[in-house]
Automatic annotation (TrEMBL):
PANTHER family: THIOREDOXIN, THIOREDOXIN-LIKE PROTEIN CXXS1. This is Thioredoxin domain-containing protein. It holds the Pfam family Thioredoxin. Signal peptide: none annotated. Gene3D superfamilies: Glutaredoxin. Residues 1-119 form the Thioredoxin domain. It comes from the Eukaryota.
Length: 126
């Protein structure tokens, strides 16, 4: 139990574990005008697993963004609906709609795209 509390306390990345939690997260984010960044991952995919600490770091650096992680084996329906065919895949969403997709473990490009996405989101909201 203690380990679970620690992870909830430290992690800003929300793990999606069902199609229902996916919908709930996106609906709440859209209602709050919050941009969403999703990491589609798989436990067996080493590049995906290697990106987890980097994704956590991005989440901590961007408190106004909802960061989600989806294990494609656990939530196949969401991965299929979002047309995820390779891991890792990073998806940027605004109002439940994908606006950018990046396939592969490329930290510099991911950071650049997220920074641009967040800035464009902030200026369009302001």
């Amino acid at each position: 139990m203690e380990g679970q509390y620690d992870q909830q306390n430290k992690s800003r990345v929300v793990k999606v574990d069902s199609p229902e939690s996916w919908e709930t997260c996106l609906t709440q984010a859209a209602a709050q005008g919050c941009p969403v960044v999703v990491h589609f991952t798989a436990a067996w995919c080493m590049p995906s697993v290697a990106m987890n600490p980097f994704f956590e770091e991005l989440a901590s650096a961007n408190p106004d963004v909802l960061f989600l992680t989806v294990d494609v084996d656990d939530v196949k329906e969401v991965a299929t609906r979002m047309e995820v065919k390779a891991m890792p895949t990073f998806l940027l969403l605004k109002d439940k709609t994908p606006v950018d997709k990046l396939v592969g473990a490329n930290p510099e490009e991911i950071r650049k795209r997220i920074d641009g996405f967040v800035q464009s989101f902030c200026t369009s909201v302001a």
